[in-house]
Design brief:
alpha/beta, Rossmann fold, eight-stranded mixed sheet, six-stranded parallel sheet, 16 strands
């Protein structure tokens, strides 16, 4: 059995399942992406190179589709040159268009991973009402779904990582979509005990409380500015807390850099108030093992997001048994029940965030049950051991359905 995975990056969402299929099921797995070719853990990596893309002369609303079309065509031309590869199944991330034209190259089922369906209202685009939404961006939210809709039409079956993300897609496609989470690798993301209280050269004294915040990029979509306001209120009240902020000065989502003069959104936020930066450690990006140590040593983990794709970091923090205080937004509500396996506060309610944070910091041990319950939930429902068999069943059903139709 040969599975061809398609994504512009590698290993992306598919690394774990590809290794699982190779090592446990004897499958062949190939992975077409933009990275250089090679072989990794038994998975053959094939490189595609796009030959063009959207320019300023292309209508703003159609640039996403233009770029996705170039990716789709590059994947098609690349795989056409690899006549030795004859997949029994194709699995790809929808939105980049990677799998679209493969339906004309191979006679095999296609499974697409559907992460997000864009909307102009009641969505990530207009959630932060204090940030003006340009009319053209609202219009573009419709056309950003063009390739996604083509993938929905073309694929045999699809899946989304959470029920909430699945619910965003047009109801007529719901029968075609399942909810299967990517899976948490608990060989990495687990609670570590007696972790050295040290970040780089800086030693964190015993008795000092640790609050953690993790985001791939410091930006409004992940509530970095709200977190910093909460952190300042905590700093102003007590002197026994330090904040470990993991992430980088990049904007992954949204147009923060178009609205500010500073080079980074973090710089912009820090200018808005008088922060005692000795109380903050900005680590930059860290290795997963180091991040698991940081999450394990923390007394409180704060996570915020607008209604958008749920961050892996929140699930990883729960797997590490962190006491999580998060924004009471739709993607979070599916995972955290207030007072059971974490705490929730309204996204903008800095005072309530601060109040709940102070309660935890006053008695971290008394709130350990929240982290323990979070860890138990991950173990019960969201580990790789739980999710990979669901993926395999989806793959096999797609292949078997196609085989039965052909017969």
């Amino acid at each position: 059995m040969h599975v061809l995975f398609c994504h512009k990056n590698f290993p992306a969402q598919f690394g774990h399942i590809a290794r699982y299929l190779v090592n446990n099921k004897g499958f062949q797995c190939s992975f077409v992406c933009e990275l250089e070719p090679g072989e990794f853990d038994g998975v053959r990596r094939i490189q595609y190179k796009i030959q063009g893309g959207a320019t300023k002369t292309v209508h703003y609303c159609s640039r996403t589709f233009e770029n996705a079309t170039w990716h789709a065509h590059a994947v098609y031309e690349t795989m056409k040159r690899h006549a030795d590869i004859k997949p029994d199944l194709i699995v790809g991330h929808s939105g980049f268009g990677s799998t679209l034209f493969l339906a004309d190259l191979y006679d095999c089922p296609i499974i697409n991973y559907f992460e997000y369906y864009y909307r102009g209202k009641d969505s990530d685009l207009d959630f932060r009402s204090e940030i003006p939404t340009k009319e053209i961006d609202r219009l573009r939210s419709r056309t950003r779904n063009a390739m996604i809709l083509l993938d929905l039409q073309t694929c045999n079956v699809g899946y989304a990582p959470t029920e909430w993300q699945r619910s965003l897609f047009p109801t007529e496609y719901h029968p075609k979509l399942r909810s299967i989470f990517d899976g948490v690798d608990t060989s990495v993301w687990y609670r570590r005990h007696n972790v050295p209280r040290q970040i780089g050269e800086r030693q964190i004294p015993e008795g000092t409380k640790i609050v953690t915040y993790v985001s791939r990029g410091f930006e409004t979509m992940r509530g970095f500015d709200i977190f910093m306001k909460v952190a300042k209120k905590i700093c102003d009240t007590r002197d026994d807390v330090i904040f470990l902020c993991v992430g980088s000065d990049r904007v992954c989502y949204g147009g923060d850099l178009n609205r500010i003069e500073e080079k980074s959104y973090r710089e912009h936020v820090l200018k808005q108030d008088n922060y005692d930066l000795d109380r903050f450690i900005f680590t930059g990006r860290v290795h997963p093992e180091d991040l698991a140590n940081i999450l394990s040593m923390g007394d409180l983990h704060i996570y915020l997001t607008v209604p958008f794709v749920l961050s892996w970091s929140m699930m990883n923090s729960m797997a590490c048994g962190a006491t999580v205080l998060a924004s009471n937004t739709a993607p979070v509500q599916e995972m955290i029940k207030h007072g059971e396996n974490g705490l929730l506060a309204d996204f903008y309610d800095v005072d309530h965030f601060t109040e709940l944070a102070m309660q935890v910091l006053d008695d971290p041990q008394g709130h350990r049950y929240l982290g323990d319950n979070a860890m138990a939930m991950i173990q019960d429902r969201y580990t790789l051991e739980k999710c990979l068999p669901q993926m395999l069943e989806l793959y096999e059903s797609a292949i078997n359905d196609r085989t039965s139709v052909a017969a």
